[in-house]
Amino acid sequence: MRGALAVAAAAMLTVVAGCSDSDPASPEVPATDAPQQEIAHGPFFPQCGGISDEEIIKQTQVPGLVNTAQTSVGCQWLAGGSILGPHFSFTWFRGSPIGRERKTIELSRTSVEDISIEGHDGFMGVNEDLTTGAVNLCEIGIQFDDDFIEWSISYAQPPFPDACDVATELTRQSIVNSR
Q1: pLDDT in tens, the chain (179 residues)
Q2: Which of 14, 45, 76, 165 could pair with 89 in a Cys bridge, judged by C-beta atoms 3.0 to 4.6 Å apart?
Q3: Is the separation of the CB atoms in 43 and 179 below 8 Å?
Q4: pTM for the complete prediction?
Q5: Domain at 47-177, CATH from 3.40.1000, 3.40.50, 3.20.20, 3.40.1350
Q6: What are the percentages of helix, strand and coil residues in the chain, rounded to 5?
């Protein structure tokens, strides 16, 4: 009988607790008087910046490239699908400050300079191969209002075409492909 009373008491406690009208405590969100900043988006870029796998192979002069990562905001191509070789990527940053990306490039590349492609401004970051002195990595970021795109061209070993010529042409094509 005591067991039955204990079970009944526990069941009753559950029902009473479930009917309680006290709200659980929730954290208060502080109010801010700061005005909301409007974000101005740039044009729409098609998948992979509108660049086909065939065009990447043509521009980079690297046969056997595989598109190993493909999303609505970026693509990556690797030789034979392996990270242990040249790699090429397109990324579209929505509502993200290009200045932060440029600062990262300034801290990690041999040189960074201003660039304008198809009437749009941005930066070009360059790394040189320590043994040959040739430009083996080039990254171009171009701003569109509060968005920007970035092409990264990285070669593993010579011979290879000028990485910045390739990055410039792919960036130009992506801008032309945008809507």
Answers
A1: 444 434 444 444 444 444 445 555 556 655 656 556 787 899 999 999 999 999 999 999 999 999 999 999 999 999 999 999 999 999 999 999 899 999 999 999 999 999 999 999 999 999 998 888 889 999 999 999 999 999 999 999 888 999 999 999 999 999 999 99
A2: 76
A3: yes
A4: 0.78
A5: 3.40.1000
A6: 30, 30, 40
